[in-house]
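Appendix B: complex inputs.
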Amino acid sequence: MTMIDFPAPSIGSDFAALRQDVRDFLAQEMAEHTPLMRARSWNGFDRDFSRKIGKKGWVGMTLPKAYGGHERSPLERYVVMEEMLAAGAPVAAHWIADRQSGPLILAKGTEAQKRDILPRIAAGTCSFCIGMSEPDSGSDLAATRTTATPENGGFTVNGTKLWTTYGHKADYMILFCRTGKSEDRHGGMSQFLVDLKTTKGITIRPIIDMAGEHHFNEVIFEDVHLDGDALIGTMGGGWDQVMSELAFERSGPERFLSSFALIEQLIAVVRRNPTEQQEIEIGRLAAHLMVLRRMSRSVAGLLDRGENPLLQATIVKDLGAIYEQDVPRLARSLLSQPAEPGSADSYSAVLAQTVLTVPSFSLRGGTREILRGIIARGLGLR
Amino acid sequence: MIADMAGRLFSEQVTPQTRSRAAQGEWQAALWRLIEESGLPLALVSEEAGGFGVATDEALSIVRIAGAHGVPVPLAETMMANWLAAQAGLPVSAKPQAVVDGTGLALSKAGKGWTVSGVLNAVPWGRNADRIVLILPHGGATFIVAVPTAGVTFKTAENLAGEPRDSAEIKLDLGADQVAETALPTEALAQMGALMRSLSMAGALETVLEMCVSYANERVQFGRPIGKFQAIQQYLATMADEVAAARAAADMGADAFDGTPSPLLVAAAKLRTGEASQTVASLAHQVHGAIGFTQEYALHHFTKRVWSWRDEFGTERDWGRSLGKAALADDSGTFWNFVTGPSGKGAAA
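Resulting structure:
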């Protein structure tokens, strides 16, 4: 058995000047943001904000200049991402495009797709959603039923995608669907670029989550025609493409900073006159966060070197979800203040918001059980 | 590479029998002789101070590798004792040594030399050591003292893993070359010890995970290897998470070592490896069932070690409090500033 290696993050990867730029920008830009707004974390969707970030050169940072990018390193991008998350910036309008759709198109897209899409992603004006899950295909992605049938030089798509985050606002979907029969459970899958604003035959229905928020959607495809050039990468190569996307999707700081607003509220309260137990637990929060950051930055370095650290990313996500999911329990063990939706007290309001959000942390982006299955296979369990 | 050499030496020389005999209190003289000849005890000493100029990250990795092999002699302690002695210009040595906080001992000037007296508890490997290297405050300064064990009376005691943790009654005259002032604060010893134990735990936990994966692949129940069951797979995945975190935490502490340990990163490392030890050891015993609970099976040599080491040089509570106090007192503004360090540098190691 080989140990799962997390090499040290690159030396000199702190990029102090860039970090300070981001902090200064956010301090000014988000001066009016309440703690509750910040607690929405990467669920906050704000196209104006994303456009401003794009102007600063902080979206599509790693993309080639030829496609509107900035040719910065993944570790510089990491600094920008984590500063945005720590501040609770509304990044949802560009997050998915920046994190995985852009890199996918760069790696697998046609020249025309790259020229068309990447400059708009880098400008912060192009929003993506992910069409993976379906009513009968959640954790079991290979059970995907949506089909794209080759016809008239293009494809006809039929089926339903589910839990499509910001499908109602996004400009494009990366659609994962079946394009052929295969003996291999993972074969016969492909990915497509779908223009949600102009393509006919797509119905998007809202699904309201238990916190009362609308970000999920059901996206129904009825005899939707896609041109042949909508295909991304190779016909039948969709499974492998999705698997390499997942290392980007699972290893970032958004996998452990989702409850960060509550940590800050908690500290603001206990800082005045901390008890011994409060000191211990704040120390524990700090220690775990330092270690998660190191592991996550290590994965960024592996991605930088062109490796596919899916296993390491999976570990970061599993540990990260445990961390961010535990914050409300920990806060309640240190303070007697109740959770109160809409409270004027920012701690109580943020606690309420966080309690209602944390169940999703070990579901989205791969359930805990699926992640652990991947890790177990990686360990060499036969 | 001295670390590779160390790994080979331990693989060849440290067997389950070596560990069992050591746990019964038998000093592993032959093993120590090989370690002494290899130069490993001086790995943390600079060339000027009598070492070989090994890069510190490689030197520290030896401690982790020794932890992974359950090396039942005081290698980590001796490396640390030499590091401490060198901090004050005292001579270094390849003989087995103990290292401990000497606060509470009475140190006084006597002519050209010194006298030291008092009782020390939980001296690691005291009975087997050639000398005990101490740090202690005296007259508003900090001193490093090298006490030869020839004149020390030991009362034997052990930690959970059967490693010697003796009490020592000391009343000795020391020469001028055995006592020296240092610029280090007395806390540096606990910090260095915490770093060493973090590395040892990270190593031991990797071995525990390996043992569990092998066992799960071999042990057949209900007609198939137990590693085929999802319940067991979920346990092993959780262990892999924790082992990876322990390794990252210990490496984080080691990377920040620049001749002296970084207080905040060592605090985080010791807390995190100690916590991982709890989860990993308990799941390891669950995966192994009754056989893992026996004297005969090797698992306990590793689980007992991490249960001991997590208590030594500061518990999770101790380091959590120290880190929490620092975080809450940090006037750089926010918790995020604290975690990312001054201009994003400190904790970013």
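The longest strand of chain B covers residues 113-124.
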